[in-house]
Specification:
heterodimer; A: 379 residues; alpha+beta; Butyryl-Coa Dehydrogenase, subunit A, domain 1; Butyryl-CoA Dehydrogenase, subunit A, domain 2; four-stranded mixed β-sheet; four-stranded antiparallel β-sheet; 12 helices; 50% helix; globular; B: Butyryl-Coa Dehydrogenase, subunit A, domain 1; 13 helices
C-alpha cells in the first residue's frame, strides 16, 4: 500500500508545472482566450514535447502506454495551470481508439501531437445521457451515411478527427443499436459552429448533413458502441476529476495566501475565525475529494464494470460537492476581487463550475451510483 | 501508487478475522450489533479474551506486551474488530495512560501498572475536564499541594467517562498557580477508593450513565504517583491526546453501521416499496456512503504515511471531524428510516432486561437514544471547532 506518486510521475508533474508557470501564465492565457482560434499551437507543441500526447498511447503506436494514474498526475497539473488547450477531448479520443483497437495510424499521429481528436457524443435534448441518440447512420453500399447534430462538443472545431456516436438500430434511448465512427473532421457534409464556453475554453455544435464515410470508419462492433462510450467516458470523468483536483489545490492555496496578505481592521483577514474555519473546511473538502480521485484512477481500469462505474461516479459526485464549496468560498473570501475577471481565483471558480456541467453533474453521478446493483446490498 | 494491501497484510486480515469469528462470544456480539448497552462485566470479559491471546495492546512496544504489528496491521485489527462487532477495548488504560507511562513513567510505575492494564485488573478513567475547563483544558483548577511524601488534592473533574467502573484515575492537577497556565500542571495517578474521592454519575441525554462528576476533598496521593516531573503534565497530556485521536475516524464501525442502515432501509416500506428505493432517501444515503468511501481512503493515506514515519500530526483533526460527521449522519438517517417507531423509549430492552422491545420493533428501539448519544462525538475529544482551530494553526498557518 503506497499513496505516493512514483519518481517518474513526480518528474513529469514538475516539468509540466515549470512549463505552465513560465509559458502559460495568466496574461498569456488571456491572449489565447481572446484569440480567434481560442487555443495555442505553441502550447500544444510544448505539451507534445513534454510527452503528454504520447503518454497514454500504446508503445506499438509510439506512446508510453501510461495508466489513468499517470494521466491523473498530468491532468492535475493542467488543472493547476488553468490550461485551456484541447487535451482532455484528445485524451478521451485516444482512449476510444485504444479500446476499439483499430485506427492505429491515427493513434500514431495522436501520440506525436500531429493530429487532434474530439468526441462528438452528446446531443441537445439528451442532457447527460450519452445513449440518448437521434443522429442516424445508415449502411449503404459499403459506406455509412450520417445525419444529425451533436451538441457542445468539447474542442470540436479544433480537432482533426472526430469520434461520433450514431444510431444504427433501435429507438432513441436504447443502449443497444449505437455505433461509433472515427471520421476526419473535414469530411464533406460536416459543419462546425465554434463558440467559447463559460470558462474560456471552446466547444462546437457539429452537424452531419448526409456525411458519407467508408465502412472501416466503424469503431468497434456495429450496434455495440455503448460499452465503449460508457467505459471511455468513465476514463474522461477520471481525467476531469483530476483536473478539478488540481484546480481546487491551486484555488485553495491562492485563497490561503489572500487571507494572509489582505488586511482589514489592521490585521490579515485570516485572523478572523469565521474565515479560518471555512478555510479549514475547504482543506478537508479537498482531501476527501483527492481520496476518491485516487481510488477512481485505480479502479477505472477494473475488469468489473460495476466496480468501475460505482467508484468513478462516487468520485465525480464528491468532486462536484467539493468544487462547489471550494469555488464559492474562494470567491467569497476574495471579496470584491473574487468577482472580477482580473485574478486567477475567479477563473478557477469558472472552470470548476463548468466541470460540474461536464460528463454528468453531481446528481447524475449520485443517481448512477445508486443504480448499481450493489448499492442496495449491505456494504 | 498502490492502493491495495500487501499480500502479507491480506493474510494477516484473514487470520484475525477467523480468530474473531471463533472467539467473539455471540451474546456480546449481539449486544454490539444491535445497539444494546454493555455492562462493566461485558467489557472486562472481552478484554480478558483478547488479553489471553496477547493482542490487547498492539500499539505498545513488544517488551511491555505489544504485538509487534506494523501500523497497517494495527489498523487492520481495529477495522476487523469493528466489522465483527466486538466490544471496545477501553482506551483509558491501554491507549491513553499506558503510552504516557511508557514514555515518561518511572520504572516502578511501568512495572506495576502496565501488566495490570494488560490483564484488566485496573479499570482506568481520565481526569481531565472540569466544570470551567472544557475546550480550554489548560485552565483547569483542581489543585495538588505537596505535603511531605504526599500531595493533597482538592477540586472537581467532570465528564469523566465510566468513572463509576474505575479503579484508577490519571489526572491533571495544578501544582503551580504562579506561572503560565500550561506550565503549572502535573500528571497524577490516583486510586479511586482513596478517601475523599466521590463519584457522582451524570445521566446523559439518552438516560444512560456514561460520564461522571468526580470530587476531591483533601485526597492524599503519594508523591510516588506523580508521572514524570512536577509541572510538566501539559506536555504529557498533549502526548496522550495524539494517541487518543489515531482511530477517531472509526471507519470500520461506520461501515458496519452503514450495512445496518441499508438493512433497515430495505425492510422499511414507503408507499408499499422498500424505503431504500425512494429517490429522496437514496440520494442522502448515497452521499453518506460516498463520504465514507472517501474517508476510508483518507484514513489509509494517513496510515500509509505513518508506516513511512510521517504523522499523524494535525491530519488527525481532520479525521476526527469527518469521522464524527459520518457517524452522526448515520444515526440521523437511522432515525429517519424507522420513523414513528423511533418514538417509544424502552430502557428495559436497552439494558437487556427484556428480550423483546415493548413496541415490537427491536431494530428501531435503540436508535433514537443512539442518535441522541452520538451528538457527543463532535463535542468530545476536542470539539470539532477546536479541531478546526488546530487545522487553522498547524496546517494552514493562519
Amino acid at each position: 500500500m503506497d499513496f505516493d506518486i512514483n519518481p517518474e510521475q513526480q518528474q513529469l508533474a514538475d516539468a509540466i508545472r515549470r512549463w505552465s508557470e513560465k509559458d502559460y501564465g495568466f496574461e498569456q492565457r488571456k491572449h489565447i482566450i481572446e484569440s480567434d482560434v481560442g487555443v495555442s499551437d505553441a502550447a500544444w507543441q510544448a505539451m507534445a514535447e513534454l510527452g503528454l500526447m504520447a503518454l497514454a498511447v500504446p508503445e506499438e503506436q509510439g506512446g508510453f502506454n501510461g495508466s489513468a494514474l499517470d494521466m491523473m498526475v498530468v491532468m492535475q497539473e493542467l488543472g493547476r495551470g488553468l490550461v485551456i488547450e484541447p487535451f482532455l477531448a484528445h485524451a478521451v479520443g485516444v482512449e476510444f481508439l485504444k479500446l476499439a483497437g483499430s485506427h492505429t495510424a491515427w493513434l500514431e499521429q495522436a501520440a506525436a501531437g500531429e493530429k487532434k481528436i474530439a468526441c462528438a457524443l452528446g446531443e441537445k435534448h439528451a442532457r447527460y445521457d450519452l445513449f440518448d441518440i437521434t443522429t442516424q447512420a445508415h449502411a449503404e453500399n459499403n459506406t455509412y451515411r450520417l445525419q444529425g447534430e451533436k451538441s457542445v462538443v468539447l474542442h470540436g472545431a479544433q480537432a482533426d478527427y472526430l469520434i461520433v456516436s450514431a444510431r444504427t438500430a433501435g429507438s432513441d434511448r436504447d443502449k443497444s443499436g449505437i455505433s461509433l465512427f472515427a471520421i476526419a473532421a473535414d469530411t464533406k457534409g460536416i459543419t462546425r459552429k465554434d463558440y467559447r464556453t463559460n470558462d474560456g475554453m471552446r466547444a462546437a455544435t457539429i452537424s452531419f448533413g448526409n456525411v458519407i464515410v467508408p465502412a472501416d470508419a466503424l469503431l468497434g462492433e456495429l450496434h455495440q458502441g455503448w460499452h465503449l462510450i460508457d467505459q471511455a467516458s468513465d476514463y474522461g470523468v477520471v481525467l476531469l476529476c483530476a483536473e478539478a483536483l488540481g484546480a481546487m489545490e491551486s484555488l485553495t492555496q491562492a485563497t490561503l495566501e489572500y487571507l494572509k496578505t489582505r488586511q482589514q481592521f489592521g490585521v490579515p483577514i485570516g485572523k478572523f475565525q469565521a474565515l479560518q474555519h471555512r478555510m479549514a473546511e475547504m482543506l478537508m473538502q479537498l482531501e476527501q475529494a483527492r481520496s476518491l480521485v485516487m481510488l477512481a484512477a485505480v479502479k477505472v481500469a477494473s475488469t468489473d464494470p460495476e466496480e468501475r462505474r460505482r467508484t468513478v461516479s462516487a468520485a465525480k459526485a464528491r468532486i462536484g460537492m467539493a468544487a462547489k464549496f471550494i469555488g464559492q468560498q474562494a470567491v467569497q473570501m476574495h471579496g470584491g476581487m473574487g468577482v472580477t475577471n482580473e485574478l486567477p481565483a475567479p477563473h478557477y471558480f469558472k472552470r470548476l463550475s463548468m466541470i460540474e456541467l461536464s460528463f454528468g453533474d453531481t446528481d447524475h453521478h449520485l443517481a448512477r451510483f445508486i443504480a448499481q446493483p450493489g448499492f442496495k446490498q449491505a456494504a | 501508487m498502490d492502493l491495495n494491501y500487501a499480500t502479507s497484510d491480506l493474510a494477516f486480515r484473514d487470520s484475525v478475522r477467523s480468530w474473531l469469528a471463533a472467539n467473539l462470544p455471540t451474546d456480546l456480539q449481539h449486544k454490539v450489533l444491535n445497539h444494546k448497552r454493555l455492562s462493566r462485566e461485558d467489557f472486562v470479559r472481552w478484554h480478558k479474551i483478547v488479553a489471553a491471546q496477547g493482542w490487547v495492546a498492539p500499539n505498545w512496544p513488544v517488551e511491555h506486551g505489544g504485538t509487534g504489528w506494523s501500523k497497517v496491521q494495527q489498523h487492520i485489527w481495529e477495522e476487523e474488530c469493528a466489522r465483527a462487532g466486538t466490544p471496545a477495548i477501553m482506551p483509558f488504560g491501554v491507549n491513553m495512560v499506558a503510552p504516557v507511562l511508557i514514555a515518561f513513567g518511572s520504572e516502578s510505575q511501568k512495572r506495576h501498572y502496565l501488566p495490570r492494564i494488560l490483564s484488566c485488573e485496573d479499570w482506568w478513567c481520565q481526569g481531565y475536564s472540569e466544570p470551567g475547563s472544557g475546550s480550554d483544558l489548560a485552565s483547569l483548577k483542581t489543585r495538588a499541594e505537596r505535603n511531605g511524601d504526599h500531595y493533597i488534592v482538592n477540586g472537581q473533574k467532570t465528564w469523566t467517562t465510566l468513572a463509576q467502573h474505575a479503579d484508577m484515575m490519571f489526572c491533571l492537577v495544578r501544582t503551580d498557580s504562579g506561572v503560565r497556565k500550561q506550565e503549572g500542571i502535573s500528571f497524577l495517578l490516583m486510586e479511586m477508593k482513596t478517601p475523599g474521592i466521590t463519584v457522582r454519575p451524570i445521566k446523559l441525554i439518552d438516560e444512560d450513565v456514561e460520564v461522571n462528576e468526580v470530587f476531591f476533598d483533601n485526597v492524599k496521593v503519594p508523591v510516588a504517583n506523580l508521572v514524570g516531573e512536577e509541572n510538566k503534565g501539559w506536555t504529557y497530556a498533549k502526548y496522550l491526546l495524539g494517541h487518543e485521536r489515531t482511530n477517531i475516524a472509526a471507519v470500520g464501525r461506520s461501515k458496519r453501521e452503514l450495512a445496518f442502515l441499508k438493512r433497515i432501509a430495505t425492510n422499511q416500506k414507503k408507499n408499499g416499496h422498500p424505503l431504500i428505493d425512494d429517490p429522496i432517501f437514496a440520494h442522502k444515503l448515497a452521499a453518506l456512503e460516498i463520504e465514507l468511501m472517501a474517508l476510508e481512503v483518507t484514513v489509509m493515506r494517513v496510515v500509509a504515511g505513518e508506516a513511512k514515519g510521517r504523522g499523524p500530526g494535525p491530519e488527525a483533526s481532520m479525521l476526527k471531524i469527518k469521522g464524527t460527521e459520518v457517524q452522526q449522519l448515520l444515526t440521523e438517517l437511522m432515525v429517519e428510516v424507522v420513523g414513528p417507531m423511533g418514538l417509544p423509549f424502552d430502557a428495559a430492552f436497552l439494558e437487556g432486561e427484556s428480550a423483546q422491545s415493548a413496541a415490537g420493533d427491536d431494530d428501531a428501539a435503540p436508535l433514537v437514544p443512539y442518535y441522541y448519544n452520538y451528538r457527543k462525538t463532535s463535542i468530545y475529544g476536542g470539539s470539532n471547532e477546536i479541531q478546526k482551530n488546530i487545522i487553522t494553526q498547524m496546517i494552514l498557518g493562519l
